[in-house]
């Protein structure tokens, strides 16, 4: 099942970002309202999270200083795009719809600012548990790379937790 694969991918993304950040990795946040009670809601939230991730990675990419980090973020972003296309199709939306417009057939992804990402996904975050702010600067620097990767890690933790809680509810193991 595709949702079982998506769950594994999101958990792999968390592990890769934690490994890349090492001691600088944010602690796992506490989330709220992730448990879905029907399959329709599960699909809708899945679609929103995956499309938000696509826009988030594209929005951050111009500000990543390290080419190694940019390559790693790009590798994750491409998989997020595959997830989003699958979920868009599952929801009968254009395969290239974005989180900001799920009815349009786009030739280009829409980059999202940290504020736009938090507008879409921030309601699921109950506590950052002492981790860094969910933000980064619109500037390239090695220090900002850590902020960007921790921002990405927040989203990957969220997606992983969402799928970890819900996939077995609808598919079992």
Short description:
With 173 residues, this protein is mostly helical. Helix content is 60%, strand content 3%.
Structural commentary:
The protein is mostly helical and 173 residues long. α2 runs antiparallel to α3 (67-90), α2 runs antiparallel to α4 and α2 (39-60) packs antiparallel against α5. The chain is globular. It is built from five helices and two strands. The chain is 60% helix and 3% strand. Strands 1-2 form a two-stranded antiparallel ribbon.
Show the helix and strand layout.
Blueprint (H helix, E strand, L loop, with lengths): L1 H20 L8 E2 L7 H22 L6 H24 L23 H8 L3 E3 L14 H30 L2
Antiparallel strand pairs: 1-2
Q: In angstroms, what separates the terminal alpha carbons?
A: 10 Å
Element pattern in H and E: HEHHHEH
Q: Could you say which overall geometry the principal axes of the C-alpha atoms support?
A: globular
The total of helices stands at 5
Strand neighbour order, sheet with most strands: 1-2
Our Rg estimate from Cα atoms comes to 15 Å
Beta content: under 5%
Mean pLDDT: 96
Spans of at least 5 consecutive residues with low confidence: none
How many strands? 2
Write down the oligomeric state. single chain
Helix content: 55-70%
């Amino acid at each position: 099942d595709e949702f079982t694969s998506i769950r594994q991918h999101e958990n792999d993304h968390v592990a890769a970002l934690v490994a890349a950040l090492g001691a600088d990795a944010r602690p796992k946040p506490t989330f709220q309202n992730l448990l879905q009670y029907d399959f329709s809601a599960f699909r809708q939230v899945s679609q929103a999270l995956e499309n938000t991730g696509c826009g988030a990675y594209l929005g951050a990419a111009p500000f990543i200083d390290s080419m190694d980090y940019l390559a790693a973020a790009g590798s994750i972003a491409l998989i997020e795009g595959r997830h989003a296309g699958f979920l868009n199709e599952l929801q009968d939306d254009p395969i290239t719809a974005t989180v900001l417009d799920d009815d349009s057939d786009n030739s280009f992804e829409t980059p999202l600012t940290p504020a736009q990402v938090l507008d879409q996904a921030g309601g699921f975050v109950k506590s950052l548990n002492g981790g860094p702010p969910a933000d980064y600067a619109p500037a390239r620097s090695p220090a900002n790379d850590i902020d960007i990767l921790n921002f990405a890690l927040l989203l990957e933790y969220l997606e992983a937790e969402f799928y970890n809680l819900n996939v077995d509810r609808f598919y079992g193991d």
